Amino acid sequence: GAVVSQHPSRVICKSGTSVKIECRSLDFQATTMFWYRQFPKQSLMLMATSNEGSKATYEQGVEKDKFLINHASLTLSTLTVTSAHPEDSSFYICSATSSPETQYFGPGTRLLVL
Amino acid sequence: AQTVTQSQPEMSVQEAETVTLSCTYDTSESDYYLFWYKQPPSRQMILVIRQEAYKQQNATENRFSVNFQKAAKSFSLKISDSQLGDAAMYFCAYRHTWNTGNQFYFGTGTSLTVIP
Lengths: 114, 116
Fold this sequence. Notes:
heterodimer, A: 114 residues, mainly beta, 7-stranded mixed beta sheet, 4-stranded antiparallel beta sheet, globular, B: 116 residues, 6-stranded mixed beta sheet
Protein backbone atom coordinates (compact mmCIF):
# COMPACT_ATOMS: atom_id res chain seq x y z
CA GLY A 1 0.00 0.00 0.00
CA ALA A 2 0.82 3.74 0.03
CA VAL A 3 2.05 3.95 -3.54
CA VAL A 4 2.67 7.32 -5.16
CA SER A 5 3.26 7.66 -8.88
CA GLN A 6 4.69 10.50 -10.92
CA HIS A 7 4.39 11.17 -14.60
CA PRO A 8 6.42 11.68 -16.64
CA SER A 9 9.55 10.15 -15.19
CA ARG A 10 11.72 12.14 -17.54
CA VAL A 11 11.03 15.13 -19.75
CA ILE A 12 13.13 17.23 -22.08
CA CYS A 13 11.72 20.53 -23.27
CA LYS A 14 12.77 23.69 -25.02
CA SER A 15 13.37 26.89 -23.15
CA GLY A 16 10.19 28.96 -22.88
CA THR A 17 7.75 26.08 -22.91
CA SER A 18 5.66 24.83 -20.00
CA VAL A 19 5.86 21.38 -18.48
CA LYS A 20 3.27 19.65 -16.33
CA ILE A 21 4.18 16.92 -13.84
CA GLU A 22 1.48 14.76 -12.29
CA CYS A 23 1.60 13.18 -8.86
CA ARG A 24 -0.95 10.53 -7.93
CA SER A 25 -1.62 8.55 -4.80
CA LEU A 26 -2.69 5.19 -6.18
CA ASP A 27 -4.16 3.36 -3.22
CA PHE A 28 -4.98 6.01 -0.67
CA GLN A 29 -6.47 9.46 -0.41
CA ALA A 30 -3.88 12.14 0.22
CA THR A 31 -5.11 15.22 1.99
CA THR A 32 -1.71 16.81 1.61
CA MET A 33 0.89 16.53 -1.11
CA PHE A 34 4.33 18.07 -1.20
CA TRP A 35 6.61 19.09 -4.03
CA TYR A 36 10.37 18.95 -3.64
CA ARG A 37 13.30 19.81 -5.81
CA GLN A 38 16.58 17.94 -5.52
CA PHE A 39 19.92 18.91 -6.99
CA PRO A 40 22.59 16.25 -7.58
CA LYS A 41 24.03 14.85 -4.37
CA GLN A 42 21.98 17.22 -2.26
CA SER A 43 19.02 16.93 0.04
CA LEU A 44 15.41 17.56 -0.81
CA MET A 45 14.30 21.18 -0.93
CA LEU A 46 10.63 21.69 -0.15
CA MET A 47 8.99 23.90 -2.76
CA ALA A 48 5.36 23.89 -1.70
CA THR A 49 2.67 22.15 0.29
CA SER A 50 -0.53 21.33 -1.51
CA ASN A 51 -3.87 20.67 0.16
CA GLU A 52 -6.85 19.35 -1.78
CA GLY A 53 -9.25 22.09 -2.77
CA SER A 54 -7.13 24.98 -1.57
CA LYS A 55 -4.23 27.06 -2.75
CA ALA A 56 -0.74 25.71 -2.31
CA THR A 57 1.57 27.14 0.31
CA TYR A 58 4.92 28.04 -1.21
CA GLU A 59 8.24 28.12 0.58
CA GLN A 60 10.19 31.31 0.70
CA GLY A 61 12.04 31.98 -2.52
CA VAL A 62 9.82 29.75 -4.68
CA GLU A 63 8.02 31.70 -7.39
CA LYS A 64 4.36 30.75 -7.29
CA ASP A 65 3.73 32.14 -10.76
CA LYS A 66 6.49 29.99 -12.18
CA PHE A 67 5.69 26.79 -10.35
CA LEU A 68 1.92 26.39 -10.54
CA ILE A 69 0.47 23.75 -8.28
CA ASN A 70 -3.03 22.38 -8.50
CA HIS A 71 -4.47 19.81 -6.12
CA ALA A 72 -7.72 18.97 -7.83
CA SER A 73 -8.60 15.82 -5.95
CA LEU A 74 -7.53 13.67 -3.04
CA THR A 75 -5.42 11.56 -5.37
CA LEU A 76 -3.93 14.05 -7.82
CA SER A 77 -1.66 17.05 -7.62
CA THR A 78 0.07 18.70 -10.57
CA LEU A 79 3.13 20.91 -10.80
CA THR A 80 3.44 23.07 -13.90
CA VAL A 81 6.76 24.70 -14.61
CA THR A 82 5.85 27.71 -16.72
CA SER A 83 8.18 29.30 -19.26
CA ALA A 84 10.89 26.84 -18.32
CA HIS A 85 14.54 27.88 -18.49
CA PRO A 86 17.72 25.82 -18.26
CA GLU A 87 18.13 26.74 -14.59
CA ASP A 88 14.84 24.95 -13.89
CA SER A 89 16.45 21.68 -14.90
CA SER A 90 16.36 19.47 -11.86
CA PHE A 91 14.86 16.41 -10.24
CA TYR A 92 11.36 17.04 -8.92
CA ILE A 93 9.83 14.74 -6.32
CA CYS A 94 6.32 14.69 -4.94
CA SER A 95 5.12 13.07 -1.77
CA ALA A 96 1.75 12.42 -0.18
CA THR A 97 0.45 11.74 3.28
CA SER A 98 -2.29 9.31 4.17
CA SER A 99 -1.67 9.64 7.88
CA PRO A 100 -0.19 12.53 9.83
CA GLU A 101 2.99 10.63 10.53
CA THR A 102 4.50 9.55 7.24
CA GLN A 103 5.16 10.88 3.77
CA TYR A 104 5.26 8.50 0.83
CA PHE A 105 7.31 9.61 -2.12
CA GLY A 106 6.86 9.37 -5.84
CA PRO A 107 9.70 8.11 -8.02
CA GLY A 108 10.59 11.60 -9.20
CA THR A 109 10.69 13.43 -12.50
CA ARG A 110 13.88 14.47 -14.18
CA LEU A 111 13.42 17.73 -16.09
CA LEU A 112 15.94 18.93 -18.63
CA VAL A 113 15.36 22.31 -20.25
CA LEU A 114 17.40 22.96 -23.36
CA ALA B 1 13.31 26.55 12.40
CA GLN B 2 14.11 22.96 13.11
CA THR B 3 17.43 21.66 11.85
CA VAL B 4 18.53 18.14 11.16
CA THR B 5 22.23 17.41 10.97
CA GLN B 6 23.93 14.44 9.41
CA SER B 7 27.62 14.87 10.06
CA GLN B 8 28.79 11.98 7.88
CA PRO B 9 28.56 12.85 4.17
CA GLU B 10 29.93 9.43 3.24
CA MET B 11 30.23 6.09 4.96
CA SER B 12 31.35 2.66 3.85
CA VAL B 13 30.81 -0.79 5.27
CA GLN B 14 31.95 -4.27 4.39
CA GLU B 15 29.22 -6.60 3.27
CA ALA B 16 27.69 -8.52 6.20
CA GLU B 17 29.13 -6.03 8.71
CA THR B 18 27.30 -3.44 10.77
CA VAL B 19 27.29 0.30 10.21
CA THR B 20 25.79 3.19 12.15
CA LEU B 21 24.68 6.44 10.55
CA SER B 22 24.44 9.50 12.76
CA CYS B 23 21.72 12.12 12.97
CA THR B 24 21.13 14.94 15.41
CA TYR B 25 18.31 17.44 15.43
CA ASP B 26 17.34 20.63 17.12
CA THR B 27 13.86 21.20 18.50
CA SER B 28 12.07 22.74 21.43
CA GLU B 29 9.11 20.39 21.04
CA SER B 30 8.50 17.29 23.14
CA ASP B 31 6.33 15.43 20.66
CA TYR B 32 7.55 14.74 17.16
CA TYR B 33 8.40 12.01 14.68
CA LEU B 34 11.77 10.99 13.33
CA PHE B 35 12.41 9.07 10.15
CA TRP B 36 15.13 7.48 8.11
CA TYR B 37 14.61 7.43 4.37
CA LYS B 38 16.74 5.60 1.82
CA GLN B 39 17.35 6.92 -1.69
CA PRO B 40 19.03 4.33 -3.94
CA PRO B 41 20.43 5.20 -7.39
CA SER B 42 16.90 4.99 -8.80
CA ARG B 43 16.24 8.09 -6.64
CA GLN B 44 13.00 6.67 -5.26
CA MET B 45 12.72 7.71 -1.62
CA ILE B 46 11.92 4.70 0.54
CA LEU B 47 10.87 4.83 4.18
CA VAL B 48 13.26 2.72 6.24
CA ILE B 49 12.12 3.30 9.79
CA ARG B 50 10.04 5.66 11.91
CA GLN B 51 10.23 6.64 15.58
CA GLU B 52 7.66 8.47 17.68
CA ALA B 53 9.33 10.69 20.24
CA TYR B 54 6.94 9.70 23.02
CA LYS B 55 8.02 6.08 22.73
CA GLN B 56 11.06 5.12 24.74
CA GLN B 57 11.56 1.86 22.92
CA ASN B 58 13.82 2.07 19.90
CA ALA B 59 12.16 1.19 16.62
CA THR B 60 13.39 -1.82 14.66
CA GLU B 61 12.64 -3.11 11.20
CA ASN B 62 14.41 -6.35 10.42
CA ARG B 63 18.11 -5.46 9.95
CA PHE B 64 17.48 -1.77 10.63
CA SER B 65 17.27 -0.33 14.11
CA VAL B 66 17.62 3.08 15.67
CA ASN B 67 19.26 4.42 18.79
CA PHE B 68 16.96 7.23 19.88
CA GLN B 69 18.42 9.44 22.59
CA LYS B 70 15.78 12.09 23.23
CA ALA B 71 17.73 14.11 25.75
CA ALA B 72 20.73 14.25 23.46
CA LYS B 73 18.49 14.82 20.40
CA SER B 74 20.22 12.03 18.62
CA PHE B 75 18.70 9.49 16.24
CA SER B 76 21.21 7.09 14.73
CA LEU B 77 20.46 4.28 12.31
CA LYS B 78 22.15 0.90 12.65
CA ILE B 79 22.22 -1.42 9.68
CA SER B 80 23.16 -4.97 10.58
CA ASP B 81 24.39 -7.65 8.18
CA SER B 82 24.84 -5.04 5.46
CA GLN B 83 23.87 -6.07 1.97
CA LEU B 84 24.86 -4.70 -1.41
CA GLY B 85 21.32 -3.44 -1.86
CA ASP B 86 21.73 -1.21 1.17
CA ALA B 87 24.02 1.08 -0.83
CA ALA B 88 22.18 4.39 -1.11
CA MET B 89 21.82 7.89 0.23
CA TYR B 90 20.22 7.90 3.65
CA PHE B 91 18.28 10.92 4.86
CA CYS B 92 17.23 11.58 8.42
CA ALA B 93 13.99 13.58 8.77
CA TYR B 94 12.02 15.29 11.52
CA ARG B 95 8.38 16.26 11.75
CA HIS B 96 6.30 17.98 14.42
CA THR B 97 3.25 16.14 15.65
CA TRP B 98 1.22 19.31 15.94
CA ASN B 99 2.07 20.68 12.52
CA THR B 100 -0.98 20.06 10.42
CA GLY B 101 1.04 21.05 7.38
CA ASN B 102 3.06 17.87 7.81
CA GLN B 103 6.27 19.58 6.83
CA PHE B 104 9.35 17.41 7.12
CA TYR B 105 12.83 18.71 7.79
CA PHE B 106 15.54 16.68 6.09
CA GLY B 107 19.21 16.30 6.83
CA THR B 108 21.81 16.65 4.12
CA GLY B 109 22.17 12.91 3.71
CA THR B 110 24.81 10.22 4.13
CA SER B 111 26.02 8.28 1.14
CA LEU B 112 26.54 4.64 2.12
CA THR B 113 28.81 2.38 0.11
CA VAL B 114 28.73 -1.38 0.69
CA ILE B 115 31.97 -3.12 -0.15
CA PRO B 116 31.64 -6.70 -1.41
